[in-house]
Design a protein that fits this description.
Blueprint: E1 13-17, E2 27-30, E3 35-41, E4 49-56, E5 62-67, E6 69-70, E7 77-82, E8 88-98, H1 100-114, H2 118-133, H3 140-154, H4 160-165, H5 170-178, E9 183-187, E10 191-196, E11 203-207, E12 216-218, E13 223-225, H6 229-233, H7 236-241, E14 246-249, H8 297-309, E15 313-318, E16 321-322, H9 327-331, E17 347-349, E18 352-354, E19 358-359, H10 366-382, E20 387-391, H11 398-411, E21 416-420, H12 425-434, E22 438-439, H13 449-462, E23 471-472, H14 481-485, H15 487-501, E24 504-508, H16 538-543, H17 549-561, E25 571-574, E26 581-589, H18 615-618, E27 624-632, E28 639-644, E29 663-667, E30 673-676, E31 679-684, E32 691-696
Parallel strand pairs: 2-10, 11-14, 11-24, 14-15, 15-20, 20-21, 21-22, 23-24
Antiparallel strand pairs: 1-3, 3-7, 4-5, 4-8, 6-7, 8-9, 8-10, 12-13, 16-19, 17-18, 25-26, 26-27, 27-32, 28-31, 29-30, 29-32
Helix pairs in contact: 1-2, 2-3, 10-11, 11-12, 15-17
Length: about 700
Amino acid sequence: MFRTEVKVGRIPVTGVQPVVHCGAVPAKALIGEDIPVRATVFREGHDRLGATAVLHGPDGAEVQRTRMTEGAPGLDEFVATLRPAVVGPHSFTIEGWSDPYATWHHAATVKIEAGVDVELMLAEGGSLFRQAAADPDRSEADRAVLARAVRGLEDTTRDTQERLLAAEDPDLTDVLAARPIREFLSPSPAYPLDVQRALAGRGAWYEFFPRSEGAVYHPESGTWASGTFTTAASRLPAVAEMGFDVIYLPPIHPIGRAHRKGPNNALEAGPHDPGSPWAIGSPEGGHDAIHPDLGTAEDFAAFVERATGLGLEVALDLALQCSPDHPWVAEHPAWFTTRVDGTIAYAENPPKKYQDIYPLNFDNDPRGLRRAVLRVVELWIARGVKIFRVDNPHTKPLWFWEWLIAKVHRSHPEVVFLAEAFTRPAMMHALGRAGFQQSYSYFTWRNTRDEIAEYLHEVTAETPAFYRPNFFVNTPDILTEFLQFGGPAAFKIRAVLAALSNPMWGMYAGFELFEHVARAGAEEYVDNEKYEYRPRDFAGAEARGASLAPYITRLNRIRRAHPAFQDLQNLVLHPADNDGILAFSKSRRHLPDGQYRAPAGVAPPVFPGVPDAAALTESLPGRADTVIVVLNCDPHAAREATVSLDLAALDLDPADLDSEGRFEVEDLITGARWRWGADNYVRLDPFVEPAHVLRIVRED
C-alpha cells in the first residue's frame, strides 16, 4: 500500500534564496547588511496571492517582517530585503498566502466596469472588510477605517464607481499594507543565516612587513638591522590616517636556515639574507614563537595595543607549512609527506618551487595535527589576534577547515578567517561553505570593462550566500601587467574599482608609491620583499607629490561616509556605449517604520571606523543613500560615453527630481555638481581623473 505525504503548502513556496546546501550550511550575512531574499510563490487558478519575508533573531523571536514585491514579471518571483541588527545565528522564512482583498478588488473592478454582478461584488467587498475588522489583533483605528470602507461600499445613494472607490481609500490601503488580509498561510521551512560582525565582510586592509618598517642598512658591513614591532608601530598612524581598518602582517615567526631563499627567490642565500617569512620554524621555535629580530611577546602585545588605539585591528598570517628546521619536522615526521627516496616533499606550484617549505600532510595523523593547529590559533587569539589570513587553504583538506573554524567559533565567534586561495572556483566556493568568511579573488586579473562587469555580477548576485571576495589590488606575490605598464593612472583605476565596488578591499605596501617593476619573466615584484628588507620613504614621496596616499585616503573616507558602499549585494550595473567605461550604482534605503523590531537594548549597527555611518540613512526617513560610480578602465587614453541609467535602481523619490525629471549629483572626488537624468554624457581622462564618484543630492 502506498502512502502519500504532501510536501508543499496550500500556497507553494519554492526556490528560496539565500540558501546553501538546502539549508545544511548557513548563508553568510553581516550585522546591518541588506540581505536580498527571494522565492517562487504561486498557486492554482487566478486568485491573487502575496508573500512575506520574516527574520528571526538568535533567540528565535521575530525581529523583522516585510511584505515581498513581485520580481521578474511572469515568473512568480517575489523579492524583499532583510537587515539583521545583531550578531549571531538567525533564520528566515518565506510565508506564501492567498490575498482575498487583491483577488476581490481585481474581480470587482473588471465586473463593475462590465456591469456584471455589481451589487454582489460590492456586497462581497463589505463582507470581506467586516471579517477583517473582526480580527482581535487589529487596533481600534484600523477597525474604524475598515468600517468606513464597508459603509462606502453599501451606500446606495452614491453611484457605483464612488462606492468602489471606498475600497481604494489611501487610509484603507495603508491599513491592509501594514496588516494584510491573509488566507491559507503557507510558511517555508526556516533557513539559517550566520550573521557576523562587520569586519567579517567589510573593511579596508593594509599589508606590510614589520621587519622592513625601520630596517637599517649598514654599508660599512653590508648588513641590515631588522625592523621591529616597535619601529613598525610608528607606521601605524599613517595607515590609520589613510582610512584602513585592518593591518595585516605576514608570518612573524622564526625563519628556517635550511634551503633559505636569497634575493629574488635565489636558491642560494647569503649569511645575512633574512629568508622568506613563510618558511616558518627554526631552533628558536615554530608557529607559536615570534622571530627574535622582531621582538618579544610583550613587544607584539604593545603593537596590538597601539593598533587598537588607532582603530586598526591586527590580522596575522596563518601559514600551515614548515621550514626543514621547524621543531615539528623532528618531533612529528608523520605530519609530512616522505618520498620514496626518504626525503620530505617540499612545496611546489609548477613552475615555482619552494625548497625552503615543507607542506603538512593531514592524512597520517589528523587528530594530532589538528590539535596542534588549534593550539596555535588559540594562542594567537589570546595574544589579541581576531583575524587570520590563511595561506593556501586550498592545499589542505576541506574537512580540516570545517572542523577548525567551527571549533574556534564555539569559543570565539568574533574570529575572522580570510582564505588566500587563488585556485579553481569550485574549491574557492567550497572554502566559503566550510566557514571562511572571506576570500582573495580573481578580481586582481579582471581588467577590461566587460571582464570586470561580468565578475562583479558573479560575486554580488550569484555567490554572496557562501563566497565573499576581498578585492586586493596587489600582493607581495602579484604585480599584474595592468600595474606594470599602466602608469599612475592604472593605480588610481584599480583603487577606485576595489574600494568602491566591494565592501572589502586591500593593498600591499608600495602600491601607494606606484611600485611597478617586475622581475623579468614573472608577474611579481623585482627585489621582492618576501626575500629581503625593503624600507620605504612614504613621507618623502608624499611631500614630493609622488604618492597615491592622499587619493587612497579620499576613497576610504568616501566609503565610510556612505553606507551604500558597505554592502555587497546592492550593486547594479548600468550600460555605457564605450567599452572602456564601467558604470555601477549602490543604494541603501531607510527601513520603513514598523518593519523592524530591534531586541531591547540593541544599538543600531555600526560600520568599521564610522560610529555614525549607519545613522546616515536613518536620519532621512524613507530616503536612500545612493551613489553612482563611472570609471574609465583604460589607463592609456581618455574615453567618452553616454551612460544610460536604470532610474528605478537609484531609489529616486519625487522630491529628488526637478520639473524635467532630472536630479542633482555631486562628484565626491572633485566637488563638481551636475544635473543628471536617464542618459548622461561623460568624458574621463585617466591622466586627470579616471572616475566620477557621484552621490545623489538629497535635502533633509
